[in-house]
Each structure stands twice: as structure tokens, then as C-alpha cells.
Specification:
Blueprint (H helix, E strand, L loop, with lengths): L1 E6 L3 H13 L5 E4 L16 E2 L10 H19 L4 E2 L3 E5 L5 H13 L4 E5 H7 L7 E5 L3 E3 L1 H14 L3 E3 L6 E4 L4 E5 L2 E10 L5 H7 L7 E12 L10 E4 L11 E4 L5 E4 L3 E2 L13 H8 L2 H9 L1 H12 L1 H9 L10 E13 L10 E4 L3 E6 L4 H14 L14
Parallel strand pairs: 1-2, 1-12, 2-9, 5-14, 12-20
Antiparallel strand pairs: 3-8, 4-8, 5-7, 6-7, 10-11, 11-12, 13-16, 13-17, 13-18, 14-15, 15-16, 19-20
Helix pairs in contact: 1-5, 1-11, 2-11, 9-10
């Protein structure tokens, strides 16, 4: 009998396991991951950015957890010698019509207590000499990190605390019992008093297995990237972002210097025809049918059909993708970029077509379900873990062992 079973071995699942082991050091903890390694999906394919929290609605989980997580992630990387850098970033306006949006973003940054400054086009070019813009803002606390190594360290910490970590173990059924729940897998059954669902791309399905209404459906969006060729990496010194569309959940095509020195350009955002669809040809009938028969998707598509069409064009046309990059750096040419990995964002969508724009944490009778944790979940992972543990009723048999 385990006290806690965490489903999902991405950065949120492992950080939650770490938070549980800290709060309840004598508890028996199980982490189940269906893949052969940790951080296989969203975590292992993200841009590696330590976000500041500048974009998110004041008072939201994202704003709070990201602002605090930006600091706690840097401190964690420092404490465990994980490659990282607080390099800052610039967000730039390239057209007059973007200036009011840039001002709104600056004010939001101030509301969220983010270290931020308005800078002129000349000051932007002192930081990023090749950028084309008419104004910008500088976000000082943004950084980059190796999140795969962060996850590996989380797993080591949980294991050192006595946690039982199982790879290649997919949960296929959850059965309620008088003492808790039984998780059925092909590798056997695991009995636990409490379940924590951090299954990312499959979090809504795991919630339903546990007889909990996830209140939304996961719709997968693939983000495709190009990479600057090594001889052109000098065009980008750090992180360069456009002013995002405030009505669209994605930040727009941008440039990111990775921790290994490479420079990634992207992503676009297109509907994936498979929840784990990292390639254009990936298709899963169940995943596709669920989206196509979900009213919320068609309401979203009707509202954003123009942006969606542009994203599809960028997916199939390198020339169109490069043109979007040239808005920020005109010197980038077709031969300067090559395709690189893609990621899939697990975005929760409600029946009325509204995107869940905050982290979504739902309580069951003997469970907690993290049902929306896209970006900035990696940055916020330590804080999300703490918040999930705060949702757990204190087990009577562990009360004398609780750590503050």
C-alpha cells in the first residue's frame, strides 16, 4: 500500500513527488511513467526558457507560480549545478499598431512585479544588433535551463527519499476500494491511498478513469521549430520575442538561444492529429475523433480561423515561416535555418470554446488532478508541486512526520 501515487513522470509529476516527499518524509510514494524515460513529452521538447511571468493575468496561478518559480528554478539549478543562465529577453514591436499592446504588456509586467523596462529601438539593438523594431521592453529575470537535467535531479531526490519510481508503466484502469484506489497496469496492480494525476497530454483521460470530471478536454497543438545554422547563430545573442496577440494563447514565432548555444526559431502552433504527434504525418484515430466531435474545438476554430490558417501555412511553407522570422531579424534567409524538433502543447479547452488560460487543478475524493499545465509549467514546476500538496488532506497516520 502506497500513501501517494503520482501518474506522470514529466517535470510537474516529478516536482510534485518531490514536494510530497518533503512534506511527508515518512510516506510511501510511487511515481508511474508510461514511457521509457523521464521528461519524454512536453518537458523534454520545450524551449528551455525560464519564464518571468510577464504575460499572465495578475492574480492567476500562472502569474504567481511563474514569478515565484522563476526564482526557485534558478536557485534549484544553482544548488545542483544544472546548466542555466539568467540572460533576460527583449519583446519588440515591429509596427505602430503593436505599440499599445506593448504598453499593455509593460503594465502587466509591473502589476506582476516583474523586473522590466521600456527601451528604445536603439537600446534594443545594443542588446540584439540585428533586430528590426520601433520599440521594446526588456525583461531582466528571464533565463534558460536544461529541463531534462532538472527532471533527472527531481527524480534522484525522490528516489533518495525512498520513493518508488517506475518507468514503462502505463495506468490503464483506476478502481476505487475501501482503503483507497488500485491502479491497474500491464506491469501489475498498485494500491494507494491517494492519487495525483500529472499525466499532461492524457491528464483529462486519467481524471475520467478516476471518476473525476476534468471540466475540459486536452486538445494537442504541435509547435514546430527551425534552428539557425551554426555559422548564423551570431544573429541572436539571447531571447527575442514579438508582441503576442492577446486573444491567442501562443507567444508567436520567436528566437531562443538554448543552453547548448544553438538558436531555435519558432514555434508555430497547429492542431496535432495525435496527442503525441511530433510529425506532420502522425495520426491517431481516437485522438482525431475526440477533437473533431468536441463542440469546443469548432467554436475555437470559428473564432481564430484566420490565425489558425496562417499557422497551417507556416507549417507547410518554409518560405512563410522564414518571412515571419524576418519581421524580427531581416537578415535571416532561407538557407540560414534547418528544421529541428517539434513539441506538443497539452492545451485544455472548455466546451464553450474558451481555452483554459490558467493552470487547472481539480480535487477528487481521494485524488488531485492537474488538468492544464502547459507553458510556463516547467518554470513553475516547484511551485505547482507545492500547490498540489496543499490540496492534499493530511493523512492521519503521517501527521507526526509532517515537515513545515
Amino acid at each position: 500500500m502506497y500513501d501517494f501515487a503520482i501518474i506522470g513522470g514529466g517535470i510537474v509529476g516529478l516536482s510534485t513527488a518531490m514536494a510530497v516527499s518533503k512534506r511527508y518524509p515518512d510516506s510511501k510514494i510511487l511515481v508511474l511513467e508510461k514511457e521509457s524515460r523521464w521528461a519524454f513529452h512536453q518537458t523534454g521538447n520545450n524551449s528551455g526558457v525560464i519564464h518571468s511571468g510577464v504575460y499572465y493575468k495578475p492574480g492567476s496561478f500562472k502569474a504567481k507560480f511563474c514569478r515565484e518559480g522563476c526564482q526557485s528554478m534558478v536557485e534549484f539549478c544553482q544548488a545542483h549545478d544544472i546548466p542555466h543562465e539568467v540572460c533576460g529577453k527583449v519583446i519588440v514591436a515591429t509596427e505602430e499598431k503593436e505599440l499599445p499592446l506593448l504598453e499593455n504588456l509593460y503594465q502587466r509586467g509591473l502589476q506582476n512585479d516583474i523586473p522590466i523596462a521600456k527601451i528604445t529601438a536603439e537600446e534594443v539593438r545594443e542588446i540584439e544588433p540585428h533586430v528590426n523594431c520601433i520599440a521594446g521592453i526588456r525583461v531582466f529575470s528571464t533565463g534558460i535551463a536544461d529541463y531534462k537535467k532538472v527532471c533527472q535531479k527531481y527524480a534522484e531526490i525522490v528516489q533518495r527519499q525512498g520513493g518508488d519510481l517506475r518507468l514503462n508503466t502505463k495506468v490503464e484502469k483506476i478502481v476505487e476500494t475501501s482503503k483507497g484506489q488500485v491502479l491497474e497496469t500491464k506491469q501489475g496492480e498498485f494500491e494507494t491511498r491517494f492519487v495525483i494525476n500529472c499525466a499532461g497530454l492524457h491528464s483529462d483521460r486519467i481524471a475520467k478513469l478516476g471518476k473525476v470530471d476534468p471540466q475540459a478536454k486536452i486538445v494537442p497543438f504541435r509547435g514546430e521549430y527551425y534552428e539557425l545554422t551554426p555559422e548564423k547563430r551570431g544573429l541572436v545573442k539571447g531571447l527575442i520575442y514579438p508582441v503576442p496577440n492577446p486573444d491567442f494563447p501562443f507567444l508567436g514565432v520567436h528566437f531562443t538561444r538554448m543552453i547548448d548555444g544553438s538558436v531555435h526559431a519558432g514555434p508555430n502552433a497547429v492542431l496535432s492529429l495525435k496527442r503525441e504527434g511530433y510529425h506532420k504525418t502522425d495520426f491517431d484515430l481516437r485522438d482525431f475523433a475526440e477533437v473533431m466531435t468536441f463542440p469546443g474545438f469548432w467554436k475555437l476554430a470559428a473564432k481564430h480561423y484566420d490565425e489558425g490558417f496562417q499557422e497551417i501555412i507556416r507549417s507547410f511553407s518554409k518560405a512563410a515561416f522564414v518571412r515571419s522570422l524576418q519581421r524580427l531579424i531581416p537578415d535571416v534567409q532561407m538557407e540560414d535555418v534547418v528544421p529541428t524538433h517539434a513539441g506538443v502543447r497539452a492545451q485544455a479547452l472548455m466546451n464553450d470554446g474558451k481555452l483554459v488560460d490558467d493552470f487547472l487543478i481539480i480535487k477528487g475524493q481521494h485524488s488531485v488532478h492537474v488538468c492544464n499545465a502547459p507553458s510556463p509549467a516547467a518554470t513553475s514546476s516547484i511551485e505547482i508541486g507545492k500547490a498540489v500538496v496543499d490540496q492534499i488532506p493530511e493523512p492521519e497516520h503521517l501527521r507526526s512526520t509532517v515537515r513545515a
